[in-house]
């Protein structure tokens, strides 16, 4: 559909959101930043970064295969994407995702672990807030 209507500027954003590739999403957002600002869609697209985070964490969850995920594993996924961040930033991102109900679970700060719900830890019917 993006090709049909010549909306090529959205391709890296949609690919990044679908796969959880924050680097691709951020690069696409930065590349077409002026265009998105002129159209008045930049802030809306910036909010889509939360979906990117959610899908990245969902991929880590599928790789680990357990409901308890060490925050270190998630930090390593950011490092693999070329975006090294510390555990406090990971915890902050996760806390926001849990608060906005993109992820069902809780954080154990003492153990540095994300504990996910056994039933539908990554709900899909959530609207962006």
What is this structure's SSE topology?
Layout: H1 11-19, H2 22-31, H3 33-39, H4 42-47, H5 49-64, E1 68-70, H6 71-80, H7 87-99, E2 105-108, E3 113-116
Antiparallel strand pairs: 1-3, 2-3
Helix pairs in contact: 1-2, 1-5
Task: Characterize the structure shown.
This protein is mainly alpha-helical and 129 residues long. It has one domain: Winged helix-like DNA-binding domain superfamily/Winged helix DNA-binding domain (Arc Repressor Mutant, subunit A, Orthogonal Bundle), CATH 1.10.10.10. It contains 7 helices and 3 strands. A hairpin with a 4-residue loop joins β2 and β3. α1 packs antiparallel against α2 and α1 runs parallel beside α5. The longest helix is centred in the middle third of the chain and has 16 residues. The chain is elongated, with a radius of gyration of 15 Å.
What's the mean pLDDT score?
91
> How many structural domains are formed by the residues?
1
What's the story with the biggest beta sheet?
Answer: 3 strands, antiparallel
Would you report the number of β strands?
3
The arrangement of helices and strands along the chain is: HHHHHEHHEE
């Amino acid at each position: 559909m993006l090709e049909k209507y010549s909306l090529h500027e959205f391709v890296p954003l949609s690919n990044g959101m679908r796969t959880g590739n924050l680097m691709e999403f951020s690069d696409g957002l930065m590349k077409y930043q002026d265009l998105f600002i002129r159209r008045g869609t930049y802030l809306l697209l910036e909010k889509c970064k939360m979906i990117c985070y959610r899908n990245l964490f969902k991929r880590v969850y599928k790789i680990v295969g357990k409901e308890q995920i060490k925050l270190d594993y998630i930090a390593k996924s950011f490092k693999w994407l070329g975006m090294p961040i510390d555990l406090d930033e990971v915890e902050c991102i996760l806390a926001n995702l849990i608060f906005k109900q993109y992820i069902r679970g809780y954080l154990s700060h003492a153990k540095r672990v994300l504990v996910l719900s056994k039933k539908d830890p990554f709900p899909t019917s959530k609207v962006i807030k």
